[in-house]
Design brief:
It comes from Salix suchowensis. InterPro entries: Met_g_lyase_put, PyrdxlP-dep_Trfase, PyrdxlP-dep_Trfase_major. This is Methionine gamma-lyase. It holds the Pfam family Met_gamma_lyase. There is one protein chain. Strand 4, helix 6 and strand 5 form a beta-alpha-beta unit. The radius of gyration is 25 Å and the shape is globular. The protein contains twelve helices and 14 strands. With 468 residues, it is an alpha/beta fold.
Length: 468
């Protein structure tokens, strides 16, 4: 028996020594790597010669335009990596502060009253990450529009005014506000809430002069949309949002500020609550879900208003300590949130690459090549219905899911115009995986977002350039 264990120990020791030697070889520089064979005490390992390697150094899976763009974007990609490290650090710190453990992944059923602490830990961690007093992160939010709507209804009452300070809001909010007829289904306008917009400046940014005098005594809520939406405009930086909030509060200290944070999470090192936003809201199948959250949304900000928004999601009196979440979903939320800085970083690199390549072909792009990014959306003005359809079809063909299908433009709930979507994603509507879409109206711009790695867009662009 002893000899058996001794022999087993000896074999394990040899395997460890062999593994250490192979690890040393794998970490060696190309110059030091042996050209022919390696001899060790265990079975010999023959290193492949250059003729045996199918992928040669002088080959590339990318078209020349992409190769040239990648070579020119080294400093931008390096800066993104530094941002990813910074944001990953704050997520990690928040997880450590709530003492995240595997028991938090157990989930719950029914009313969710017997929840094992994951819901509370997730809310606390999310609030710390975005610099807010409180947060509610729930699978029961259908979409970002749903979360934003709950936040607006938390603020506004009959006779109040809602002021959009960054031009027209995203299409799906038009029926929520009552800008487009909701057919009596309960828009803010149906409940007696007034609405105004501050038009954008000629350069596509906020009109600071107009905003300086825009508020009225009954303006109860100012809505700031961080991302460009379907508008050909600049997305807003957190510093610009902070400047707008100061202007708003100077005119009317009682006016509450709601920020539509969709596509903006983790693009900078701070979020809007850090500069005075009363509430922010967004979707978990965009940036903060890390491409693996299967559904849901969030609201974060001042504790009082988070609780009021939670009452719009559920019902007054139920509070935030209810609502079941299956264990596999709860784990995906934590894991997705941890991965999200990295996934957002890759999406940002994708926007740089798209802008660089498409601008080199003469197309107008927003943001401009190498400009600082404030969201994960890259718009390209294609100029015609045919080119917009061709671009989206090329993206769909390059997708991992449903690549054999052809996207067709049509009417979609919440949108005023015909819209075309290309989103061959593992999670339905998960724009953070890799997608593009656009309304079929002038100037026929396509809006690209997501990508789990920038190389995805590198490959997609090769297909796009064949057909436009």
């Amino acid at each position: 028996m002893l000899s058996h264990y001794s022999a087993a120990y000896s074999n394990r020791q040899q395997l460890r020594e062999f593994g250490m030697k192979m690890w040393t070889l794998s970490c060696a520089t190309p110059v030091a790597y042996p050209a022919n064979s390696v001899r060790v005490s265990m079975p010999s390992v023959k290193a492949p010669s250059s003729s045996q390697i199918s992928f040669q150094h002088n080959e590339s899976p990318f078209v020349p335009e992409v190769v040239k763009a990648v070579d020119s974007l080294y400093s931008e990609f390096r800066a993104v990596d530094n941002l990813v490290a910074c944001n990953t650090s704050r997520v990690l710190k928040a997880f450590q502060n709530v003492r995240l453990g595997s028991h938090h992944f157990s989930g719950s059923t029914g009313y969710g009253h017997d929840e094992a602490g994951g819901r509370e830990a997730l809310d606390q961690a999310f609030a710390e990450i975005v610099g807010a007093e409180s947060a509610i992160v729930r699978s029961q939010f259908f979409s970002g529009t749903h979360a934003i709507t709950c936040a607006l209804y938390a603020f506004l009452r009959p006779g109040d005014e809602l002021l959009a300070v960054a031009g027209a809001p995203y299409d799906t909010l038009e029926e929520v506000i009552g800008k487009r007829d909701s057919n009596g289904l309960g828009s803010l306008r149906d409940f007696g809430v007034e609405y105004r917009e501050v038009p954008l400046a000629e350069d596509g940014g906020l009109d600071w002069d107009c905003l300086m005098h825009a508020l009225k005594p009954h303006t109860k809520c100012a809505l700031i949309q961080r991302s460009c939406g379907y508008s050909w405009r600049q997305s807003l930086s957190v510093n610009e949002i902070g400047r707008a909030i100061k202007m708003i509060k100077m005119q009317n200290p009682n006016c509450l500020v709601m920020v539509d944070n969709c596509y903006g999470e983790f693009v900078e090192s701070i979020e809007p609550p850090s500069v005075g936003a009363d509430l922010i809201a967004g979707s978990l199948i965009k940036n903060p879900g890390g491409t693996i959250a299967p559904c849901g949304g969030y609201i974060a900000g001042k504790k009082k208003w988070v609780e009021a928004a939670a009452a719009r999601l559920s019902a007054p009196g139920l509070g935030i300590d209810c609502g079941s979440t299956p264990g596999d979903v709860m784990r995906a939320y934590f894991q997705g949130l941890f991965l999200s800085p990295q996934m957002v970083g890759e999406a940002i690199k994708g926007t740089f690459l798209i802008a660089e390549v498409m601008a080199s072909k003469g197309y107008q792009v927003q943001p401009l090549p190498r400009a600082t990014r404030h969201d994960t959306v890259q718009a390209v003005q294609l100029g015609s219905r045919e080119l917009l359809l061709a671009f989206c079809e090329a993206v769909q063909r390059s997708s991992p899911v449903a690549s054999y299908t052809k996207p067709v433009a049509g009417s979609t709930p919440g949108y005023a115009s015909e819209v075309i979507f290309a989103d061959g994603t593992f999670i339905d509507g998960s724009t953070s995986e890799l997608s593009c879409d656009g309304p079929l109206r002038e100037p026929f711009a396509v809006f690209c977002q997501g990508g789990t790695h920038w190389t995805q867009w590198g490959l997609v662009l090769g297909e796009v350039l064949k057909h436009i």
